[in-house]
């Protein structure tokens, strides 16, 4: 995989390469291998990150900061859960994909969602 991505960079088809949804050890291992073999390293990580999904804070953020690797989070509003109180959108009821990502932690997420709503109200930014 790294060789194919390196070929795309050296051919001028892409400027840089990124990776999505990886653990810190996977990124470190891939970039170590790329450096050892003279291949292009990953310069960005796209990751599922928001106030509910914060796993990347454990190791990935530190690695990226240390190595100068850009972080690009997706689902920053947790598929809409952080934009409105629970049950205030059709998506919360109808979107099976969004529910599948977050329903397993719904109970503990309610505290975070309520706190976000409280702060939004305090700052008049509903």
Q: Key features?
A:
48% helix; alpha/beta
Ordered list of secondary-structure elements with their pairings:
Blueprint: H1 2-10, E1 17-20, H2 24-37, E2 42-48, H3 60-67, E3 70-74, H4 90-94, H5 96-102, H6 106-122
Parallel strand pairs: 1-2, 2-3
Q: If you compute it from the alpha carbons, what radius of gyration comes out, rounded to the nearest whole angstrom?
A: 19 Å
> Any idea how many domains?
2
Q: Count the helices. How many?
A: 6
Strand content: 5-15%
Distance between the termini: 45 Å
What do you see in this structure?
Strand 2, helix 3 (60-67) and strand 3 (70-74) form a beta-alpha-beta unit. The chain has two domains: 1-76; 80-126, no CATH class. It contains six helices and three strands. It has helices spanning 2-10, 24-37, 60-67, 90-94, 96-102, 106-122; strands at residues 17-20, 42-48, 70-74. It starts with a helix and ends with a helix. Helices cover 48% and strands 13% of the residues. It has a three-stranded parallel sheet with strand order 1-2-3. With 126 residues, the chain is of the alpha/beta class. Residues 2-124 form the NADP-dependent oxidoreductase domain. Keywords: Oxidoreductase.
